[in-house]
Amino acid sequence: MSLPDLIAALRRGIGLTHKHDIAPVLAQLNPNANGTIAIGDDCAAIPDHDSFLLFAIEGFMPGFIAAEPHFAGYCGVMVNISDIAAMGGRPVAVVDAIWAQDAANAAPILAGLAEAARRYNIPIVGGHTNSRAATDCLAVAILGRAANLLTSFDARPGDNLLAAIDLRGAMRPSGPYWDASTTAPPDRLRADLDLLPQIAEAGLSIAAKDISMAGIIGTAIMLLEASGAGAVIDLAAIPCPPGMSLEQWLPAFPSFGFLLSVAPQNTPEVLAMFAARGIGCAVIGTVKPGPYLRLRLDDDEQTAWDISKDTLILKTPSLADA
Questions:
Q1: CATH topology for the 37-146 domain
Q2: What are the structural domain ranges in the chain?
Q3: Long-range contacts of range 117-123, CB-CB < 8 Å, 24 or more positions apart?
Q4: Verdict on whether the full-model pTM lies above 0.90
Q5: DSSP at 174
Q6: Any bridge partners for residue 52, and if so which?
Q7: CATH architecture classification, 3-15+150-321
Q8: 196-223 pLDDT, tens per residue?
Q9: Is residue 234 a contact partner of residue 35, using CB atoms and an 8 Å limit?
C-alpha cells in the first residue's frame, strides 16, 4: 500500500473517526468549567496533597460484548489500568456497571472482570448490576494515584517520540485487538506496567499516552493536539509483530502500548528500561513545533493530519465557529 493510500485508510478507520464524537459532548456538558482539572487526558488528575488521584472510566460497545463477552469483561479492567499507567500512576481499585439480558449473559462478562482483577492484583470494590436489560452493556471506572504525572499536554518540540508495545501476543478473532495480556504471567504484567510510574518518578518523561482504539497514529494525533505540537513519524520504525502489514497493525489496539515524548538525553535510559522487560520500544519520530502530523514511509513523506484544521477530541472547526 502506498503512503497516500495508507493515510486515506487510516483516516477512514472506525477507531479514529469515533474520536470525533467526543468534542460535541465536551461542548454540551462543559465539564470542569472552573478549569482546575485539564480535560483531554487519559485520566482526570485531581491534586491531593503531595500527589494526584487519577480517575477514569471505559465503556464497551454492545457488538464487542456480544462477540467476546469474557474478553470484554477482562478489558474492563485491563484498559483502565493502562490509562492509569499512561498518567504515571498505579491503580487503586475499580468499580463496574453491567447491564445484561439475564444472569447467563452476565456470567462470562463477570468472569472476565474477575480474572483480570486477579491477574493485575486490583480489587473490584463495588458497582451496579442489572440482569433485565434489553442488551448487554458494560462500563468500568478506576481510581489510581500518581506521585509525578505523565500527561498528554507536555510533548515538547525537540523530544523524541517513542512507541513501547508488547509484541508477545496475537490478534483476537473479534477485531483489531492485539492481546499480549491474557496468556502472560501475572507478575510480568504488573511489573511491565510499573515501568510507566518509574519513568515518571525518575523524571525521564513528562508526556505519554496509551495507544487506544484510535491506533498508533490516532493516539499520536491526540497527544500532539493536546500539547499544541506536531511530529514526523517514520512508519518503518514502529515496533511491529513479524509478518504483519502496516495497514493491519497501525489501527490495532494493543493490550500494552504507549507513546512517550522523551528528551534526547533521557532516551537511551528509557529504551533500555523497556528492553530489559522484553518490550518492543523504539524512537519512531520527533516532536516538532508545527500543528501537523507527517508520516514517512521509505522515501516518501506526507502530511497525514493538519491539527490546526481537523482536531479530534478537544474541538472541531464547526464547534469553534458556533
A1: 60s Ribosomal Protein L30; Chain: A; (3.30.1330)
A2: 3-15+150-321, 37-146
A3: 117/77, 118/186, 119/181, 119/186, 119/189, 120/77, 120/78, 120/81, 120/91, 120/186, 120/189, 120/190, 120/193, 121/186, 121/190, 122/77, 122/81, 122/91, 122/92, 122/93, 122/94, 123/93, 123/94
A4: yes
A5: T
A6: 47, 146
A7: Alpha-Beta Complex (3.90)
A8: 999 999 999 999 999 998 999 999 999 9
A9: no
